[in-house]
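quick q for whoever's on today - can somebody do inverse folding on this one?? i tried earlier but teh output was garbage lol. tokens:
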């Protein structure tokens, strides 16, 4: 039975005001993309593990 993911929404909140000065939007977008990639990889690994059972 094939599994189809129609929509995946990951909400990322970036809070500024910590030790490091505010970064540019480009840096924040890179960070968001890296987080989404990591989360997607974890989800796919979980789906594969469940399928292999």
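ok took a stab at it. sequence:
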């Amino acid at each position: 039975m094939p599994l189809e993911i129609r929509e995946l929404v990951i909400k990322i909140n970036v809070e500024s005001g910590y030790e490091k000065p505010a970064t540019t939007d480009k840096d924040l977008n890179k960070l968001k993309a890296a987080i989404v990639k990591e989360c997607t990889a974890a989800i796919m690994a979980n789906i594969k593990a469940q399928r292999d059972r």
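fwiw The radius of gyration is 16 Å. also The mean pLDDT is 78. so keep that in mind when u check it
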